[in-house]
Amino acid sequence: MSKSEKWAWWTLGVVVMTIAAYTVFLAFRGHGPAIISVFVLLALTALPASSRRHLQGRTFDERERAIANKALRAGFSAFWLAFVGLIPAIGFTKGWNSTLTLPVWTLGEVVWWAAILVLGVQALTTIVLYRGGSHA
Amino acid sequence: MPSQEPEIKNHIRRLRFEHGEMTQDQLAKRAGVTRHTIMALEAGKYFPSLLLAFRIARVFRAPVDQVFEYHATESNL
Fold first, then answer.
1. Please, which residues have CB within 8 angstroms of residue B39's CB and are 6 or more apart in sequence?
2. Do A135 and B45 touch (CB under 8 A)?
3. Partner residue opposite A62 with nearest CB, options B5, B45, B49
């Protein structure tokens, strides 16, 4: 298993663990404190050595780079689709001229779910491309 | 439905054995890639860039067309 695959599996694990921790915290502490409590867990994605390979002077070879680029693009495409889908959904359900009054924790939660989405899709795409063989 | 993908075959595995049973790791180091990329190339799961194709050919001291072979089909002439 390559270092990039190990990073992907690790990241997927961190994403699942973070969502599980969020669910637990949500039950006991409510939205705001739950988000603050689990946000730091996402920093665990920086633990694998492959996350710091640029700092250590090691670089991807062309196939790894192609897969990493595709995975990142997939992650941000998912985010973009979710964002584009969310705005019309709010517009159609609440009315286009309505005003939203949202609690402060919503901001943190939106950023958190966006990070979860990008990291999760990026990790999954990496695993699929390595498993399936990429003609990248 | 015929495949639209060009069929590129390579003889890396045979050439490795003809060059003193060179390991995938040795070839990877000399070509400047990871062993996983050599494995993917040999399995036909990855088509290299022109630069990598030349680098691999250089390791074997062979022209590129002796390492990589292009099989044109009617759909991808």
1. B24
2. yes
3. B49
Nearest to A51 by CA among A136, A115, A123: A123
Half-sphere exposure of residue B16: CA atoms within 13 angstroms, side-chain side: 18
pLDDT digits (tens, 9 = 90+) for A45-55: 777 666 555 55
Partners of A135 on chain B (C-beta within 8 Å) are 5, 45-47
Report the chain A residue with the minimal C-alpha distance to residue B28: A61
Name which of B5, B34, B51 is nearest A135 (Cβ-Cβ): B5
- Asked if residue B41 has pLDDT above 80, the reply is yes
Helix (H, G, I), strand (E, B) or coil at A24: helix
CATH topology for B7-76?
434 Repressor (Amino-terminal Domain) (1.10.260)
Of A76, A8, A3, whose CA–CA distance to A45 is shortest? A8
CB B42 within 8 A of CB B12: yes
Residue B16 · residue B27 · CB < 8 Å: yes
Residue B56 has pLDDT above 90, yes or no: yes
Q: Do A63 and B37 touch (CB under 8 A)?
A: yes
Q: Count CA atoms closer than 13 A to B40's CA, side-chain side.
A: 24
> Does B33 contact A133 at a Cβ distance shorter than 8 Å?
no
The residues with which B69 forms a beta bridge, in sequence order, are B9
Would you say B63 and B57 are in contact if contact means Cβ atoms under 8 Å apart? yes
Q: Which of B5, B33, B47 sits opposite A61 (nearest CB)?
A: B33
